[in-house]
């Protein structure tokens, strides 16, 4: 049965319209006026009372939420993550692995392969492998004991679900690995991260096939006017990048600088670990103990260990602390990541998947729709 969302402020790519109706089933079938809607019979209308309607949010870097982690390698864990993040407006995500033993990574990938189509909430649209091919000097919260040299042992078997790999190009055989990935698996996005490369080595990585940068400014060589590092190389290139806009990983002034430099190349992520949407306390990330206090997740030595950020709060933080417009911030979690991943979603447009979210002026999520089904309704 067709449904129609009425009385919404619809966020399109270049404008916000309050006089149109979105008609949909599993896909968006029509965008019409209220008068045209009157011509339809047997259509269910959903009145959102002036709230905003946008395409559903896409998180390309999330380890866990709701007490579960991708590396748990169970259907229950993926189901928990999938359902929990609906309340943040997320309708699609890359299940993100991290630097652990080869066996643990393979178990996680096998589990995702088996259960991608079995989750009931936000859709799993692939895997983001964060590591294990990284620089130990920039391991961040990744366990240095499990860092590996680049290898196709894992990639070849799971290339159908792997959509992104974060790696350090300067490690042994890094550039050769990047070139081979681009040749064998051009659909896999290669992202520079956990890298201590200098400017020249980073640029060489881009020339070999890296097209993205992971959590810009974090776990990478920083900017110095005589050595611009990975950060400078990213800002001075046309590759896309993602940012953890929790005001902990990145200062609000830096967020504004990143926005001015990257514009439509900027994607917001959560990098959430299992404590996302949970109370403060003790958790684990990749087998390491993590303390969550005052919205900050840290290892015992004080290093940041992912985040507990929700994607709708990332949007709110960017809107309140940068010059980004509402359309700009919405694009950073919809059309820009959708285009990067080649998804049939990311815009309110006829023919695309009916992945949509309804939210208010404070970015509180009122309703989340996945493939035309209401999966989250605030208060229900």
TrEMBL record:
- Name of the gene this protein is made from: nagA
Q: Please verify whether the record's keywords include Hydrolase.
A: yes
Similarity comment text for this entry: Belongs to the metallo-dependent hydrolases superfamily. NagA family.
| Matching InterPro entries | Amidohydro-rel, GlcNAc_6-P_deAcase, Metal-dep_hydrolase_composite, Metal_Hydrolase
This chain belongs to the protein called N-acetylglucosamine-6-phosphate deacetylase
Any one Gene Ontology MF annotation carried by this entry is:
N-acetylglucosamine-6-phosphate deacetylase activity
Q: Which Gene3D superfamilies match?
A: Metal-dependent hydrolases, Urease, subunit C, domain 1
The cofactor remark states: Binds 1 divalent metal cation per subunit.
What Pfam family does this protein match (any one)?
Amidohydro_1
UniProt binding sites for substrate: 141, 218-219, 226, 249, 304-306
Question: In Gene Ontology terms, what is a biological process of this protein?
Answer: N-acetylglucosamine catabolic process
Quote the catalytic residue positions: 271
Q: CDD domains from the entry? A: NagA
Q: Which residues form the Amidohydrolase-related domain?
A: 54-374
Keywords tagged on the record: Carbohydrate metabolism, Hydrolase, Metal-binding
| Species this protein is from | Sulfurovum sp. enrichment culture clone C5
- The EC number(s) given in the record are 3.5.1.25
Annotated Zn(2+) binding sites: 130, 194, 215
User: Which cofactors does it use?
Assistant: a divalent metal cation
**Does the keyword Repressor feature in the UniProt annotation?**
no
């Amino acid at each position: 049965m067709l449904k129609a969302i009425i009385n919404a402020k619809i966020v399109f790519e270049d404008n916000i319209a309050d006089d149109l109706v979105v008609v949909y089933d599993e896909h968006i079938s029509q965008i019409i006026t209220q008068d045209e809607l009157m011509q339809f019979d047997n259509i269910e209308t959903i009145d959102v009372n002036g709230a905003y309607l946008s395409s559903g949010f896409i998180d390309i870097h999330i380890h866990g939420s709701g007490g579960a982690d991708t590396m748990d390698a169970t259907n229950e864990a993926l189901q928990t993550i999938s359902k929990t993040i609906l309340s943040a407006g997320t309708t699609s995500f890359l299940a993100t692995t991290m630097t652990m033993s080869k066996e643990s990574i393979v178990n996680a990938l096998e589990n995702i392969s088996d259960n991608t189509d079995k989750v009931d909430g936000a859709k799993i649209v692939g895997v983001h492998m964060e590591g294990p091919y990284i620089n130990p000097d920039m391991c961040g919260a990744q366990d240095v004991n499990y860092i590996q040299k680049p290898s196709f042992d894992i990639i070849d078997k799971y290339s159908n679900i792997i959509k992104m790999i974060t790696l350090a190009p300067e490690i042994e055989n890094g550039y050769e690995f990047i070139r081979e990935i681009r040749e064998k698996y051009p659909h896999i996005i290669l992202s520079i991260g956990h890298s201590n490369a200098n400017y020249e080595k980073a640029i060489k990585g881009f020339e070999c096939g890296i097209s993205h940068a992971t959590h810009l400014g974090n776990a990478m060589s920083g900017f110095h006017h005589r050595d611009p590092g990975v950060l400078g190389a990213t800002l001075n290139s046309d590759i896309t990048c993602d940012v953890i806009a929790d005001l902990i990983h990145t200062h609000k002034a830096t967020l504004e600088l990143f926005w001015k430099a990257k514009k439509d190349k900027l994607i917001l992520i959560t990098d959430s670990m299992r404590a996302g949407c949970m109370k403060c306390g003790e958790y684990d990330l990749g087998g390491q103990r993590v303390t969550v206090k005052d919205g900050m997740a840290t290892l015992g030595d004080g290093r940041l260990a992912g985040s507990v950020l929700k994607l709708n709060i990332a949007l709110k933080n960017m809107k309140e602390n940068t010059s980004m417009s509402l359309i700009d911030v919405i694009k950073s979690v919809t059309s820009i990541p959708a285009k990067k991943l080649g998804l049939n979603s990311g815009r309110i447009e006829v023919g695309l998947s009916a992945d949509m979210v309804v939210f208010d002026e404070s970015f509180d999520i009122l309703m989340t729709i996945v493939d035309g089904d209401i999966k989250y309704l605030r208060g229900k």
